[in-house]
Each structure stands twice: as C-alpha cells, then as structure tokens.
Amino acid sequence: MMKRSKLRTSAVLAALAGCVSMACSKKPEEPTGAKTDTAALATPQVVVSPEACKACLANTQCPELPACSSLQGDDQAACDAVEKCVQTSNCADGKETFTSCFCGSLKMSDCVAAPKSGQGAPAGKCADVMRKSFGSDDPSNREILARFTKPRYPGGAAIARMNCTKYKGCGPACGF
Q: Which of 3-12, 43-52, 123-132 has the lowest mean pLDDT?
C-alpha cells in the first residue's frame, strides 16, 4: 500500500513539474483564419496594480498552483511580498524572465556562482525579497534558483503561479 501511495505522489509531482516547465510557460496560440479588423483586436487599457493583478490571478486557470492566499502566516506574507515586488518593479516585463527579478543582469550560470551578498551578488529588483521567501535555511543562489517554481516554498508558489498566468492573459494587469 505504501509503494502505491508513493507512486501516486511521484506521478502528481511529475505532472505539476511538467505543467510549470512546459504548459504553463507557453504562450497561447495565435488566432488563425481570415483577416481581422485590428481595431477590434485593440487591447483595452489595463491598470497595473497589485489589486488588478490579484483579481486576474484569481480568475485565471492555474488551479494546480496555490495562490498566496492559501498559505498561512509568515509563508503567506513572504509569498505576497514576492508577488508585489514582481508586479510593482516590472522586473519580468515582456521578454524578461522571473529569474531576472532575482539575478538582475547576471547570466544564470553567473548567478548560481555569485556570492550571496556584496559585490557581484545577484542584484535583481526583488533579490532581497526573494532570498527571504525560499526557506529559512539561508539558501545559496543555486538552491534559490532550484526552488524557484516549487510551490512548497512561498516564493516558489508566487513565481510558479505568476509564470503560469503570464502567458494566460494576466501579463498586462500584473505588469509583466
């Protein structure tokens, strides 16, 4: 019985990881067919704010990923802080990735090898907030990046959900 439970848990985790790394990071398919009136396709003006983003995230189909509001106490506060920082700093705008919010201009390999603090450390707009949200064990840069979309960490829950919703229509409302 124990083996079957572990297999089910492994299957669920594998499916979640697949969603985070593949399906949730794909852009929606572009419409095909006859010519369309570009005026009809104009995007309505969306105000970027934490409130507008939270409303969009709440209505977007990423049910497999926890919302910050589902967490408790300090974990919820840390998750909310990551969401707010990403939304207000615009560090993941356009083609930028969520890792740029932590690493800044460092390449991924340089970010992993960088010191935790001081000269040469990751200096993304949300680096300090993110560092506090990936475990109380004072994680290394490598550990932070490995935990980046793992919902069991408050920062991972925020980033996994924002990554999924970035390409499902919440980009404008969330500032990315």
A: 3-12
* Residue 124 belongs to some domain of the structure: yes
Report whether 150 contacts 160 (CB < 8 A): yes
* Model confidence, pTM: 0.67
Residues 6+ apart with CB under 8 A from 175: 48, 53, 86, 87, 88, 90, 93
DSSP state, 169? I
User: Residue 168: inside a domain, yes or no?
Assistant: yes
Task: Give residues with Cβ within 8 angstroms of 120, minimum separation 6.
Answer: 114
The one-letter amino acid at 130: M
* Number of folded domains that form the chain: 1
Mean pLDDT, residues 100-128 taken together: 96
The reply to whether 176 falls in a domain is yes
What residue numbers bound the domain in which 162 lies?
Answer: 68-176
Q: Name the pLDDT band for 115 (thresholds 50, 70, 90).
A: very high
- Percent of the chain whose predicted confidence (pLDDT) is above 90: 43
State how far the Cα of 132 lies from the Cα of 74, in Å rounded to an integer.
11
63 in any annotated domain: no
